[in-house]
Amino acid sequence: MSQFKQERVLITGGASGLGRALAEHWAQTGAKVCIADLNAERADDVLAAIKPLAADVIFCQCDITNQDHVEAVRDTLLKEWGGVDVVVNNAGVATGGAVADEPMEQWQWVFDINLFGLVRFTKVFTPIFKQQGRGYFLNVASQAGLTAMPMMGSYCAVKAAVVSFSESMRLELVDDNIGVSVLCPAFFRTNLHESVRSDNPVMHSVVNKLLERGSMTAQQVAEIAYEGVQNGKFMIQTHKEGKQATRLRRWLPESWYLRMMEKETVKFRKKGKSTQ
Predict the structure, then answer these.
(1) Quick one: 8-272 is in which CATH superfamily?
(2) Phi-psi group of 235: left, alpha or beta (phi > 0 → left; psi -120 to 50 → alpha; rest → beta)
(3) Where are the domains of the chain?
């Protein structure tokens, strides 16, 4: 899968943050880039930035929770490009809150965007890939989907679902020459805080600080993601600390790992509970 030309790339949530960095990186390779995003104003800025680099640029205003919108993106790309080579399922939002306090409406909101939005695009574009005889999905999950944190139950759960679904996709679609990678970055400097939904105001400031202190930029994460796709790598982890945490989760006895994490997350738990 790493050998085929990635000339036509669709990126959901490509108008800001990691999505924008991914769009810029693929544009630098001379690819055609389509951005599917709700924010038309931000998308205009991205398109203006990448037009001198990309072979072609398209913006599709799209609500990924709306099936008609997703199918309209497919129809546009079939008309304009005759297909697509890579679908980057990047669009997502963040949530936080205690188990007892986080409302079901918030759980439904984050799952509809972060998981079911990804599923909608996957179901719509898989037949296109099969008709072409090739294609590639890059699904953006999170380190939170591999090593969970307290006070972020819905976010950790939905990202874990993305990781598991991606593995199922990889196994199911390999016979159709369709590749799948899942990107699991730890916190990095981006605008994800703008989408955080939580009834606990302290969670907003906590997430802001975690993002600000991130050891990597969105551009660095995008470069690693791109290289991972070129090499057909399934699990793409970007942060050294994330890789270490995943190894510990796998290798340590469960009781040891949980005791370690309980000690590591004391401050986070206290901050999250400070307004309860």
Answers:
(1) NAD(P)-binding Rossmann-like Domain (3.40.50.720)
(2) beta
(3) 8-272
DSSP states of 163-205? HHHHHHHHHHHGGGTEEEEEEE--S-BSSGGGG-B-S-HHHHH
Q: Could you give the residue ranges of the DSSP H alpha helices within the chain?
A: 17-28, 40-50, 67-80, 104-114, 116-132, 153-173, 201-212, 218-230, 240-251, 254-264, 266-272
**For position 268, what pLDDT does the model report?**
73
Catalytic residue selected from 136, 155, 226, 257: 155
Q: What single-letter amino acid sits at 134?
A: R
Contacting residues for 75 by C-beta, under 8 A, at least 6 apart = none
Q: What is the pTM of this model?
A: 0.89
Give residues with Cβ within 8 angstroms of 257, minimum separation 6: 248, 249
Question: Please, which residues have CB within 8 angstroms of residue 24's CB and are 6 or more apart in sequence?
Answer: 46, 49, 50, 53, 219, 222
Tell the residue number behind the tokens 């679908």, with chain if given: 87
Residue 136 is a catalytic residue? no
Residue 168 neighbours by CB distance under 10 Å: 11
pLDDT digits (tens, 9 = 90+) for 230-243: 999 999 999 888 89
- Contact between residue 87 and residue 62 where contact means Cβ atoms under 8 Å apart: no
